[in-house]
Design goal:
globular, disordered N terminus, seven-stranded antiparallel β-sheet
């Protein structure tokens, strides 16, 4: 799989060379954006089970990846919209807030809390550090998000705290250590997909 992805990336870069050489020193921004876009989905392509990717451009690759490995989540009450790995299935009996993999080795929970617009990213980061003193903390700007990764007793967890409009969304994913790589490849894409009907950022 990694060799195939390397060849796809290589052919992708070679295809952009004429555009760069024709422009001289003022190379267009589009190839750079395409390269960054490919890098954003590269890890997911390594994880997803996809065939016949050769010759696809970024848009086609993204569409194929979405169809093969991603689902859309929409909460009509809060307006939360995001994509998530299709390995998770929601249970209708649990009001659509908890999803699990078929083997039960991974779980995703989504909770929504009105924050009344008074919570800052720094305050939220401090609270997360108190709750997870051993966690690895990262911040994102678009959307405003604090991410906390933690490993304990053979279990991996990632908590995403997203400030969006008048809501604080918490997306918590837990899984066995053996599933960590297949989960983490989707996390940043999930974060950047978040939007709401109050303040779209995705």
């Amino acid at each position: 799989m990694k060799k195939r992805l390397f060849l796809i990336a290589l052919s992708f870069m070679i295809g952009m060379l004429p555009l760069v050489s024709c422009a001289g020193e003022e190379a267009p921004e589009e190839p750079k954006a395409e390269e960054e876009g490919f890098e954003e989905i590269r890890e997911m392509l390594e994880t997803a089970s996809m065939d016949d990717m050769e010759g696809m451009d970024l848009e086609t690759l993204t569409d194929a990846l979405t169809e093969a490995a991603l689902c859309e989540y929409l909460d009509p009450d809060t307006g939360l919209h995001m994509v998530y790995p299709s390995m998770f299935c929601f249970d209708d009996e649990e009001s659509g807030s908890t999803a699990r993999t078929g083997d039960g080795k991974a779980e995703m929970q989504i909770t929504s809390t009105p924050d009344s617009g008074g919570l800052s990213i720094e305050t939220m980061k401090g609270a997360v550090l108190l709750e997870h003193p051993d966690g690895e903390i990262r911040e994102y700007e678009n959307p405003s998000c604090v991410r906390c990764d933690e490993e304990k007793n053979g279990q991996y967890s990632v908590n995403l705290y997203v400030l969006e409009g008048d809501w604080l969304f918490r997306i918590r994913i837990t899984c066995s250590d053996e599933m960590k790589d297949s989960i983490t490849s989707y996390i940043e894409y999930m974060i950047h997909s978040v939007s709401s009907d109050q303040n779209e950022v995705g």
